[in-house]
Amino acid sequence: MCGRFALYSSYPRLSQALRLSLSQPDLELVPRYNVAPGTWITGVWHQGPDTGPAFGQLWWGYRPAWAKEGAPQPINAKVETVATSRFFQAAFRRHRCLIPADGWFEWLPTEDGKQPYYLSRRDREPLFLAGIWAERIDGSPGCAILTEPARGAAREIHDRMPLALNEASLEPWLDPDLTDRETIRQVVRHLDAVHIEHWPVSRAVNKPGEGQGAVLINPA
Prior knowledge:
Pfam families: SRAP. By secondary structure, this protein is mainly β. It is 12% helix and 34% strand.
Protein backbone atom coordinates (compact mmCIF):
# COMPACT_ATOMS: atom_id res chain seq x y z
CA MET A 1 0.00 0.00 0.00
CA CYS A 2 1.00 3.65 0.20
CA GLY A 3 -0.13 5.37 3.37
CA ARG A 4 2.63 7.89 4.01
CA PHE A 5 5.23 9.64 1.88
CA ALA A 6 7.65 12.56 1.72
CA LEU A 7 7.84 15.43 -0.75
CA TYR A 8 10.56 18.03 -0.41
CA SER A 9 11.69 18.65 -4.01
CA SER A 10 10.93 22.15 -5.30
CA TYR A 11 8.47 22.88 -8.11
CA PRO A 12 11.31 23.72 -10.55
CA ARG A 13 13.01 20.41 -9.80
CA LEU A 14 9.75 18.51 -10.24
CA SER A 15 9.07 20.29 -13.52
CA GLN A 16 12.53 19.42 -14.79
CA ALA A 17 12.10 15.77 -13.85
CA LEU A 18 8.66 15.63 -15.49
CA ARG A 19 9.97 17.16 -18.73
CA LEU A 20 6.53 18.62 -19.33
CA SER A 21 5.54 22.22 -19.94
CA LEU A 22 3.96 23.24 -16.65
CA SER A 23 3.10 26.62 -15.24
CA GLN A 24 4.89 27.29 -11.97
CA PRO A 25 2.69 27.96 -8.91
CA ASP A 26 3.10 31.35 -7.29
CA LEU A 27 3.88 29.81 -3.91
CA GLU A 28 6.94 27.74 -3.11
CA LEU A 29 6.44 24.10 -2.26
CA VAL A 30 6.70 23.58 1.50
CA PRO A 31 8.83 20.48 2.23
CA ARG A 32 6.86 17.74 3.97
CA TYR A 33 8.57 14.65 5.35
CA ASN A 34 5.55 12.84 6.75
CA VAL A 35 2.60 13.34 4.40
CA ALA A 36 -0.47 11.51 5.71
CA PRO A 37 -3.88 10.67 4.21
CA GLY A 38 -6.72 13.07 4.84
CA THR A 39 -4.61 16.10 3.93
CA TRP A 40 -4.08 18.28 0.85
CA ILE A 41 -1.26 16.97 -1.31
CA THR A 42 0.50 18.19 -4.45
CA GLY A 43 -0.50 16.63 -7.75
CA VAL A 44 -0.27 17.15 -11.50
CA TRP A 45 -3.31 16.78 -13.74
CA HIS A 46 -5.42 18.40 -16.47
CA GLN A 47 -7.65 20.76 -14.50
CA GLY A 48 -9.81 21.86 -17.42
CA PRO A 49 -10.87 20.65 -20.88
CA ASP A 50 -8.67 23.18 -22.69
CA THR A 51 -5.70 23.33 -20.36
CA GLY A 52 -2.47 21.38 -20.14
CA PRO A 53 -1.28 19.54 -17.04
CA ALA A 54 -0.61 21.78 -14.05
CA PHE A 55 0.37 21.55 -10.41
CA GLY A 56 -2.45 21.74 -7.92
CA GLN A 57 -3.69 20.48 -4.58
CA LEU A 58 -5.81 17.37 -4.14
CA TRP A 59 -7.39 15.89 -1.05
CA TRP A 60 -5.80 12.52 -0.31
CA GLY A 61 -8.98 10.49 -0.08
CA TYR A 62 -11.14 9.44 -3.02
CA ARG A 63 -14.92 9.80 -2.83
CA PRO A 64 -16.72 10.92 -6.01
CA ALA A 65 -19.55 13.43 -5.64
CA TRP A 66 -22.04 10.80 -6.83
CA ALA A 67 -21.16 8.41 -3.98
CA LYS A 68 -23.32 8.27 -0.86
CA GLU A 69 -22.18 10.29 2.12
CA GLY A 70 -21.20 7.16 4.04
CA ALA A 71 -19.26 5.67 1.12
CA PRO A 72 -15.63 4.71 1.72
CA GLN A 73 -12.88 7.23 1.05
CA PRO A 74 -9.93 5.03 0.00
CA ILE A 75 -6.43 6.45 -0.27
CA ASN A 76 -5.23 3.66 -2.59
CA ALA A 77 -6.60 1.78 -5.60
CA LYS A 78 -5.21 -1.54 -6.84
CA VAL A 79 -3.89 -1.66 -10.40
CA GLU A 80 -5.52 -5.07 -10.77
CA THR A 81 -9.06 -3.69 -10.39
CA VAL A 82 -8.95 0.10 -10.89
CA ALA A 83 -10.06 -0.11 -14.53
CA THR A 84 -13.06 -2.35 -13.83
CA SER A 85 -14.27 -1.26 -10.39
CA ARG A 86 -17.46 0.82 -10.62
CA PHE A 87 -16.05 3.11 -7.93
CA PHE A 88 -12.85 3.87 -9.85
CA GLN A 89 -13.33 3.11 -13.55
CA ALA A 90 -14.58 6.53 -14.70
CA ALA A 91 -11.62 8.26 -13.03
CA PHE A 92 -9.21 5.72 -14.52
CA ARG A 93 -10.49 6.52 -17.99
CA ARG A 94 -10.41 10.31 -17.86
CA HIS A 95 -9.19 11.62 -14.51
CA ARG A 96 -5.68 10.32 -14.03
CA CYS A 97 -3.06 12.30 -12.15
CA LEU A 98 0.52 12.14 -10.91
CA ILE A 99 1.50 12.46 -7.27
CA PRO A 100 5.13 13.60 -6.93
CA ALA A 101 7.08 12.13 -4.01
CA ASP A 102 10.69 11.87 -2.97
CA GLY A 103 10.00 8.59 -1.21
CA TRP A 104 7.43 6.67 0.77
CA PHE A 105 7.23 4.78 4.06
CA GLU A 106 6.33 1.18 4.83
CA TRP A 107 6.38 -0.74 8.09
CA LEU A 108 8.01 -4.10 8.82
CA PRO A 109 6.72 -6.09 11.82
CA THR A 110 9.44 -6.89 14.41
CA GLU A 111 9.50 -8.33 17.93
CA ASP A 112 9.59 -4.75 19.23
CA GLY A 113 6.71 -3.51 17.10
CA LYS A 114 6.51 -2.13 13.60
CA GLN A 115 9.73 -0.63 12.23
CA PRO A 116 9.27 2.12 9.60
CA TYR A 117 11.38 2.07 6.45
CA TYR A 118 11.87 4.81 3.90
CA LEU A 119 11.94 3.82 0.22
CA SER A 120 13.25 6.10 -2.52
CA ARG A 121 15.17 6.18 -5.77
CA ARG A 122 18.85 5.35 -5.48
CA ASP A 123 19.73 8.50 -7.44
CA ARG A 124 17.39 10.59 -5.20
CA GLU A 125 15.43 11.84 -8.19
CA PRO A 126 11.72 12.49 -7.54
CA LEU A 127 9.19 9.71 -8.03
CA PHE A 128 5.91 10.21 -9.84
CA LEU A 129 3.15 8.00 -8.48
CA ALA A 130 0.14 7.12 -10.62
CA GLY A 131 -3.13 8.38 -9.20
CA ILE A 132 -6.76 8.93 -10.07
CA TRP A 133 -9.01 11.77 -8.97
CA ALA A 134 -12.66 12.71 -8.86
CA GLU A 135 -14.61 15.80 -7.91
CA ARG A 136 -15.85 15.57 -4.34
CA ILE A 137 -19.25 16.71 -3.15
CA ASP A 138 -17.79 20.12 -2.25
CA GLY A 139 -16.35 20.53 -5.76
CA SER A 140 -12.72 19.97 -4.76
CA PRO A 141 -10.63 17.14 -6.23
CA GLY A 142 -9.94 14.03 -4.16
CA CYS A 143 -7.45 11.35 -5.17
CA ALA A 144 -6.20 7.83 -4.59
CA ILE A 145 -2.70 6.51 -5.32
CA LEU A 146 -2.47 3.31 -7.35
CA THR A 147 -0.63 0.35 -5.85
CA GLU A 148 0.83 -2.79 -7.40
CA PRO A 149 2.50 -5.98 -6.08
CA ALA A 150 5.85 -5.05 -4.56
CA ARG A 151 8.93 -5.57 -6.69
CA GLY A 152 12.66 -5.67 -6.04
CA ALA A 153 13.90 -4.32 -2.72
CA ALA A 154 10.42 -3.03 -1.84
CA ARG A 155 9.21 -6.62 -1.56
CA GLU A 156 11.47 -7.08 1.49
CA ILE A 157 9.33 -4.62 3.44
CA HIS A 158 5.75 -4.96 2.18
CA ASP A 159 3.78 -7.02 -0.32
CA ARG A 160 2.54 -3.93 -2.19
CA MET A 161 4.01 -0.63 -3.30
CA PRO A 162 2.83 2.57 -5.02
CA LEU A 163 2.82 2.49 -8.81
CA ALA A 164 5.80 4.72 -9.68
CA LEU A 165 5.90 5.42 -13.43
CA ASN A 166 8.93 5.57 -15.68
CA GLU A 167 9.73 8.76 -17.56
CA ALA A 168 8.18 7.71 -20.88
CA SER A 169 4.85 6.95 -19.17
CA LEU A 170 4.27 10.31 -17.50
CA GLU A 171 2.77 12.17 -20.45
CA PRO A 172 0.46 9.37 -21.66
CA TRP A 173 -0.75 8.72 -18.11
CA LEU A 174 -1.92 12.33 -17.90
CA ASP A 175 -3.50 12.36 -21.39
CA PRO A 176 -7.30 12.68 -20.89
CA ASP A 177 -7.89 11.60 -24.50
CA LEU A 178 -6.25 8.24 -23.84
CA THR A 179 -9.19 6.27 -22.47
CA ASP A 180 -8.87 2.72 -23.80
CA ARG A 181 -7.81 0.35 -21.04
CA GLU A 182 -5.69 -1.91 -23.24
CA THR A 183 -3.91 1.02 -24.88
CA ILE A 184 -3.11 2.49 -21.47
CA ARG A 185 -1.65 -0.87 -20.42
CA GLN A 186 0.54 -0.95 -23.51
CA VAL A 187 2.04 2.55 -23.18
CA VAL A 188 2.26 2.98 -19.40
CA ARG A 189 5.09 1.22 -17.55
CA HIS A 190 6.28 1.23 -13.98
CA LEU A 191 9.73 2.37 -12.92
CA ASP A 192 12.26 -0.45 -12.97
CA ALA A 193 12.55 -1.85 -9.43
CA VAL A 194 16.35 -1.72 -9.63
CA HIS A 195 16.10 2.02 -8.98
CA ILE A 196 14.49 1.59 -5.53
CA GLU A 197 16.30 1.17 -2.21
CA HIS A 198 15.24 1.39 1.44
CA TRP A 199 16.56 1.91 4.98
CA PRO A 200 15.09 1.95 8.50
CA VAL A 201 14.13 5.33 9.97
CA SER A 202 13.04 6.75 13.30
CA ARG A 203 9.77 5.50 14.76
CA ALA A 204 8.80 9.12 15.22
CA VAL A 205 7.35 8.84 11.72
CA ASN A 206 4.71 6.47 13.12
CA LYS A 207 2.73 9.50 14.32
CA PRO A 208 1.50 11.64 11.39
CA GLY A 209 1.71 14.82 13.45
CA GLU A 210 5.18 14.09 14.77
CA GLY A 211 7.26 16.80 13.14
CA GLN A 212 8.04 17.35 9.49
CA GLY A 213 11.82 17.66 9.53
CA ALA A 214 14.33 15.89 7.34
CA VAL A 215 15.47 13.92 10.39
CA LEU A 216 12.48 11.63 9.79
CA ILE A 217 14.14 10.11 6.71
CA ASN A 218 17.62 9.76 8.20
CA PRO A 219 18.84 6.17 8.66
CA ALA A 220 17.97 4.92 12.15
